[in-house]
Protein backbone atom coordinates (compact mmCIF):
# COMPACT_ATOMS: atom_id res chain seq x y z
CA UNK A 1 0.00 0.00 0.00
CA UNK A 2 1.35 3.40 -0.95
CA UNK A 3 1.83 6.05 1.73
CA UNK A 4 -1.37 8.13 1.96
CA UNK A 5 -3.27 10.78 3.92
CA UNK A 6 -6.82 12.05 3.93
CA UNK A 7 -7.01 15.68 2.86
CA UNK A 8 -8.93 18.38 4.72
CA UNK A 9 -11.31 20.51 2.67
CA UNK A 10 -9.20 23.61 3.41
CA UNK A 11 -5.62 22.40 3.88
CA UNK A 12 -3.39 24.66 5.95
CA UNK A 13 0.13 25.54 4.77
CA UNK A 14 1.47 23.28 7.55
CA UNK A 15 -0.66 20.33 6.37
CA UNK A 16 0.52 20.82 2.78
CA UNK A 17 4.18 21.00 3.88
CA UNK A 18 3.83 17.92 6.12
CA UNK A 19 2.17 15.97 3.31
CA UNK A 20 4.95 16.79 0.89
CA UNK A 21 7.54 15.82 3.52
CA UNK A 22 5.78 12.51 4.28
CA UNK A 23 4.65 11.47 0.79
CA UNK A 24 6.90 13.43 -1.55
CA UNK A 25 6.39 14.16 -5.22
CA UNK A 26 4.94 13.00 -7.49
CA UNK A 27 1.71 12.11 -5.75
CA UNK A 28 -1.90 11.35 -6.60
CA UNK A 29 -4.93 13.30 -5.36
CA UNK A 30 -8.24 11.53 -5.82
CA UNK A 31 -11.81 11.38 -4.59
CA UNK A 32 -11.90 8.57 -2.05
CA UNK A 33 -15.02 6.73 -3.20
CA UNK A 34 -15.21 7.34 -6.95
CA UNK A 35 -13.29 4.22 -8.03
CA UNK A 36 -12.16 5.73 -11.34
CA UNK A 37 -10.06 8.53 -12.71
CA UNK A 38 -12.85 11.12 -12.34
CA UNK A 39 -11.40 13.98 -10.29
CA UNK A 40 -7.94 12.36 -10.09
CA UNK A 41 -4.82 14.52 -10.49
CA UNK A 42 -1.16 13.54 -10.71
CA UNK A 43 0.69 16.26 -8.81
CA UNK A 44 4.27 16.80 -9.95
CA UNK A 45 4.87 20.26 -8.48
CA UNK A 46 4.08 21.69 -5.06
CA UNK A 47 1.92 24.47 -6.52
CA UNK A 48 -0.46 21.86 -8.00
CA UNK A 49 -1.40 20.27 -4.68
CA UNK A 50 -3.99 22.73 -3.31
CA UNK A 51 -5.87 23.04 -6.67
CA UNK A 52 -5.85 19.25 -7.06
CA UNK A 53 -7.45 18.82 -3.63
CA UNK A 54 -10.14 21.39 -4.48
CA UNK A 55 -10.84 19.58 -7.77
CA UNK A 56 -11.21 16.19 -6.06
CA UNK A 57 -13.64 17.66 -3.50
CA UNK A 58 -15.93 18.54 -6.43
CA UNK A 59 -16.61 14.80 -6.78
CA UNK A 60 -16.57 13.45 -3.23
CA UNK A 61 -16.69 14.51 0.42
CA UNK A 62 -13.46 12.60 1.16
CA UNK A 63 -10.18 13.07 -0.68
CA UNK A 64 -7.04 10.94 -0.55
CA UNK A 65 -3.49 12.06 -1.23
CA UNK A 66 -1.15 9.16 -1.91
CA UNK A 67 2.33 8.43 -3.18
CA UNK A 68 2.51 7.92 -6.94
CA UNK A 69 3.63 4.39 -7.80
CA UNK A 70 4.62 3.89 -11.44
Strand content: 15-25%
Give the SSE string.
EHEEHE
**How far is it from the N-terminal to the C-terminal residue, by CA?**
13 Å
What best-fitting shape do the alpha-carbon axes yield?
globular
Residue share in helix: 25-40%
What is the radius of gyration computed over CA atoms, rounded to a whole number of angstroms?
Answer: 11 Å
Low-confidence stretches: none
Strand order of the largest sheet: 1-4-2-3
Number of helices: 2
Largest sheet: 4 strands, antiparallel
The secondary structure category is alpha+beta
Number of strand segments:
4
Rounded mean pLDDT score: 94
Explain how this protein is built:
With 70 residues, this protein is α+β, with helices and mostly antiparallel strands. It has helices at 13-23, 49-57; strands at 4-7, 27-31, 41-43, 63-67. A 4-stranded antiparallel β-sheet has the order 1-4-2-3. It is globular, with a radius of gyration of 11 Å. It starts with a strand and ends with a strand. The model has no long low-confidence stretch (mean pLDDT 94).
Briefly, what is this?
The protein is 29% helix and 24% strand.
Index terms:
70 residues; alpha+beta; 4-stranded antiparallel beta sheet; 2 helices; 4 strands; 29% helix
